[in-house]
């Protein structure tokens, strides 16, 4: 999730065999490409060097309801796409190649942000230009189960979409993407 080129506090490159970072001036302009070719569904990299935070931030990845990850590595540069090349699995703490296609050296590294994010600090207009692009990218709570049914999603998102569809959960918290941290659902904590 890239917005600020002055951001990285970690030693780069953090994944010299896997990730090539393309740092470009301007907000949301940097990106990452793959240094390897791997088959669909295979493990790309474990998620390591991260730390947990309680408040979501614009670059954080949601690990569970009320728990977020600061990736603290070059995995940070993996941007959103509506046809992502990677899956960020926060239960297994691993990044996998998307299950529907192989990854080739030089491919853009992307993941589907609503697969981890129930809400989003900064919703944005997607520029992935993929077929079926969702346009405005928001958290899974705002997009809803119907829009997300073709995507692989993390368990904590799947569970809350189920609750939402059953009317057990309000559609949005109405706080502009800021969630009430007190309302932690322990059943989806990892
Ligand atoms: Zn898109």
Structure notes:
11% of the residues lie in helices and 21% in strands. It has a single domain (19-176), classed as Beta Complex (Beta-clip-like), CATH 2.170.270. It has 190 residues and is α+β, with helices and mostly antiparallel strands. Strand 5 (61-64) and strand 6 form a beta hairpin. It is built from two helices and twelve strands; from the N terminus they run E-E-E-E-E-E-E-E-E-E-E-E-H-H. The protein is globular. Strands 3-9-8 form a three-stranded antiparallel β-sheet, with no helix packed on it. The model is unreliable at 172-190 (pLDDT under 50). The structure holds zinc ion (ZN). Residues 82, 126, 128, 130, 133-134 line the site of zinc ion.
